[in-house]
Design goal:
single chain, alpha+beta, Glutamine Phosphoribosylpyrophosphate, subunit 1, domain 1, about 35% helix, about 325 residues, 9 helices, binds aspartic acid
């Protein structure tokens, strides 16, 4: 397997994550779970496995944890439901699979993978996606599984704020811990890149709102010619800025480095539109970028011969 470059990068969401509001116990829990996710993904590529499998496995670990806004810890919609989005993409073939607005899927990233592997479509939504899941024996979970008190309180707070300010949805304050999302990008020893992203979306979302996470090129993108990217932040802006594809395009057409491209998209393009969030990315040479313009972003990477990097706050 030689000295081929490989590695994995993950995130567990960006937002107003302040050290002053974090207890040492909570911080330890986050670090532990991020470390577990990194290790699970790293082990796959380390052993010569595929980047796409590594990203899926790393995301699943975070979906199964109530700490993050995906899978078990998903935020609530205005109606008190959990509607989840996920996408996975293979940088070698440019194949992708995605699901949007699914309510009863325990691990949306697994369903996204199935859409990629077993359907002739890219993006399935709602009940249709769940019918497809049923056909393929994917694990379902009921509403109680997704319920967490913390997220329920966030919904109540968001509704209260909405009533007080009489703001419409687009003007709601999305800045404090109303979102999250998890994601992973990886490079394997064969030189293949992949990206996976899974999200409960944004607290108090309405009208079947979908975010950027299930949209190829917005919240998730991988291309062996350039890089793999997973985003987290205020989805409407990520869709508008076509964030993930833009990082790749800046590398491909303008010859920017990964770091230059990722910084330009987050600090100039996204910020210029008024959008908040961040992204993780890895390129075909194993370079890593993790820019964000929020107070914090749960993030980490693991590369051969190095210790795991796990960070939460703006350093
Ligand atoms: N990007 C996600 C969305 O807008 C939320 C997040 O990443 O926090 O659905």
């Amino acid at each position: 397997m030689g000295d081929k470059k490989f590695g994995i990068v993950i995130h567990g969401g960006a937002g107003t994550i302040l050290k002053s509001k974090m207890t040492p116990e909570k911080e330890a829990e986050y670090r532990q779970k991020l470390g577990e996710s990194l290790q699970v993904g790293y082990d796959i590529v380390e052993k010569g496995g595929a980047a796409i499998d590594a990203t899926q496995a790393a995301v699943k670990v975070m979906e199964d944890s109530p700490l993050f806004n995906a899978g078990k810890g998903a935020v609530f919609t205005h109606e008190g439901l959990n509607e989840q989005d996920a996408c996975i993409m293979d940088g070698k073939t440019l194949n992708s699979g995605a699901v949007a607005g699914v309510r009863r899927i325990k691990n949306p990233i697994e369903l996204a993978r199935l859409v990629m592997d077993k359907s002739e479509h890219i993006l399935l939504s709602g009940e249709g996606a769940e019918a497809f899941a049923q056909m393929h024996g994917i694990e379902f979970a009921e509403a109680e599984y997704f319920y967490t008190e913390h997220r329920w309180k966030q919904l109540r707070a968001a509704k209260y704020q909405e009533k007080v300010t009489k703001a419409d949805y687009s003007q709601l304050d999305h800045s404090d811990d109303k979102h999250g999302t998890v994601g992973a990008v990886a490079l394997d020893r064969q030189g293949n890149l992949a990206a996976a992203t899974s999200s409960g979306g944004m607290t108090n979302k309405k009208f079947g709102r979908l975010g950027d996470s299930p949209i190829v090129g917005a919240g998730n993108y991988a291309n062996n010619r350039t890089c793999a990217v997973s985003g987290t932040g205020h989805g409407e802006y990520f869709i508008t800025a076509v964030v993930s594809y833009d990082v790749s395009a800046l590398m491909e057409y303008k010859g920017l480095s990964l770091q230059q491209a990722a910084n330009m998209v987050i600090y100039e393009k996204l910020a210029g539109l008024g959008g908040t969030g961040g992204l993780i990315a890895i390129d075909r040479d194993g370079n890593v970028a993790m820019p964000f313009n929020t107070e914090g972003m749960y993030r980490g990477n693991l590369l051969p011969g190095q210790k795991p990097v796990i960070e939460i706050f703006k350093e």
